[in-house]
Amino acid sequence: xxxxxxxxxxxxxxxxxxxxxxxxxxxxxxxxxxxxxxxxxxxxxxxxxxxxxxxxxxxxxxxxxxxxxxxxxxxxxxxxxxxxxxxxxxxxxxxxxxxxxxxxxxxxxxxxxxxxxxxxxxxxxxxxxxxxxxxxxxxxxxxxxxxxxxxxxxxxxxxxxxxxxxxxxxxxxxxxxxxxxxxxxxxxxxxxxxxxxxxxxxxxxxxxxxxxxxxxxxxxxxxxxxxxxxxxxxxxxxxxxxxxxxxxxxxxxxxxxxxxxxxxxxxxxxxxxxxxxxxxxxxxxxxxxxxxxxxxxxxxxxxxxxxxxxxxxxxxxxxxxxxxxxxxx
Length: 329
Prior knowledge:
By secondary structure, this protein is α/β, with parallel strands linked by helices. The protein is 30% helix and 24% strand.
């Protein structure tokens, strides 16, 4: 049995995080009471349908939610023992990149087309690292080598449009780890990559994690990637984490009907079926959430109380918990 995290292990502790957006239709609760922790050297996967709040959650951790209309309205984000939600904007500028980095899903829009690759990698190093100016380029070249860029002496002079999609994604990764952060967030970093490059990039992230002892948050739609790369997984629905646990435990014994439905939606090569499984219905509108479980209208195991009250978290095992009334004693 995996040991419980200790205070020394946990590098990121998120408690009751809430992020809302004000719209003409009302308040959209994009992140609605999310809590989890992350240990050094651990990979936490976050999965769920599009629009469930995965990306807004990690943007909230980085305090990059566009305001207006978005606003972090509550919760705590303790990074290495410091609640970064209480920091000023200037203090937070010192945290981004140095203690927490992010790899966004579209490398073409993440990189500035008018600056060379070298300038963009060196920018973060200049801002966050107290090293001589003449050493900044050497650090940038070293980081680029670590992410598998060849001929770095020439590549630092090139621009994003001169790179392939896989190379641009590696450049974004180099910027993310350039200052050796405590936590690295990868928001669907393999979306634009073909299968072969995906495998290489996942191995690269794994190697970088081991070398720098990073806590890694990995957002993806791909359960195959979760199974291969993650230690734990959190399942999100309608702005909430409805199940969280050890990857093997959650895959072998999914407790929440939504998790069960997601896993059932993954095609199995050994099965010959006429029609693939799909979850019936649509996710709820986040500005008009029901009082009970938001998955209730789509759930095959729904009970009357599911419409009336949101379930608390029930323990499935020491490393596995779920918010579902079917687990109530």
